[in-house]
Amino acid sequence: MNTTTINTDYPLPKYFQLKELLREKIAAGEWSPGTMIPSERELSEQHGISRMTARQALNELMGEGIVRREQGRGTFVADPKLLQNLSRLTGYTDDMQERALRAGARVLRLEMVEASARAAEMLKIETGDPILLLERLRLADGAAMAVETSYLHFDLVQKLLREDFENKSLYNLLQKAYGIVPTKAEQDIEAALCSRRRQELLELDEGAPVLKTTRVTFEQHGRPFEYVESTYRADRYVFHVELATL
Q1: Would you state the pLDDT for residue 3?
Q2: Domain co-membership, 169 together with 120
Q3: In this structure, how many other beta carbons lie within 10 angstroms of the beta carbon of residue 101?
Q4: How far apart are the first and last CA of the chain?
Q5: Angle of helix 51-63 relative to helix 14-27, nearest 10 degrees?
Q6: Which of 55, 58, 126, 229 lies 20 to 30 Å from 182 when distance is taken between CA atoms?
Q7: Following DSSP, what letter does each residue of the chain receive, concatenated?
Q8: pLDDT at 245
Q9: Residue 111: exposed, middle, or buried by beta-carbon count in 10 A (0-12, 13-18, 19+)?
């Protein structure tokens, strides 16, 4: 058994000391993303603490998105979170390319539907008007990142039914083929519970936190053309906004 690195005379709780020790190892690159870290039993033996103390440290790291637990396998160092800048309006594909990540998508639904009261209000149309629903599982280097449901309304929107949105950027297509330039958006973000369907799509454990965003996107003439509801993995994203005094 290794010599303990937990100071029992130190005023900080033992679980907190262990948590910070593990965090330092990860930050220093001693354990890279995807690496399995010692089990509760191994940590308790190495540091002369109880398994309950080791479990509390790991649970807090998991809650912070620093480690992830795979049932029946163990605890692993999580991939680093992506910093999403809310000061710029960018499409998902361009955003991933800027990070040197391979953007991907799996189309879950692509069909014409009647606008719900909510979608109609956001798009400034009548309830029941025809709109296009595009639901995609968004990927980065093959890993599930978000489930995104877009409701679109503009002239000739039905032509989008012919497009391959697993390999095309929606915003790039709209600009090149339809002359629609996304220029601004209004977005809300909140913590939310994840439905079982989205939990499975995002490969999340039951009860894992998610971030829900709703956004209305406007084109160059000030008309709303898109209403989007997205569910992001909270362990993969940090949303950033720059604030200034008037």
Answers
A1: 42
A2: yes
A3: 16
A4: 59
A5: 50
A6: 126
A7: -PPP---TTSSS-HHHHHHHHHHHHHHTTSS-TTPBPPPHHHHHHHHT--HHHHHHHHHHHHHTTSEEEETTTEEEEPPPPEEEETTS---HHHHHHHTT--EEEEEEEEEEEEPPHHHHHHHTS-TT-EEEEEEEEEEETTEEEEEEEEEE-STTGGGGGGS-TTSS-HHHHHHHHH-----EEEEEEEEEPPPHHHHHHTT--TT--EEEEEEEEE-TTS-EEEEEEEEEETTTEEEE------
A8: 77
A9: exposed
Asked if residue 103 and residue 65 are part of one domain, the reply reads no
Q: Please write the tens of the pLDDT for every residue from 40-87.
A: 999 999 998 999 999 999 988 887 778 888 778 889 888 777 766 666
Question: What pLDDT was estimated at residue 83?
Answer: 67
Instruction: Please check whether residue 7 lies inside any domain of the structure.
Output: no
In a domain, residue 2? The reply is: no
The domain spanning residue 105 has which CATH number? 3.40.1410.10
Q: How many domains does the chain have?
A: 2
Q: Is residue 9 assigned to a domain?
A: no
* Position 94 in a domain: yes
Residue that the structure tokens 């912070």 belong to: 64
Low-confidence ranges of the chain (pLDDT < 50): 1-3
Task: State the residue range of the domain holding 179.
Answer: 82-240
For residue 1, the one-letter residue type is M
Indicate the pTM of the whole model: 0.72
Is residue 59 located within the same domain as residue 165?
A: no
CA distances from 85 to 96, 159, 239 (A): 12, 32, 6
CA dihedral of 194, 200, 202, 203, whole degrees rounded to 10: 120
User: Is the domain of 94 the same as that of 153?
Assistant: yes
Q: How far is it, in rounded angstroms, from Cα 106 to Cα 142?
A: 10
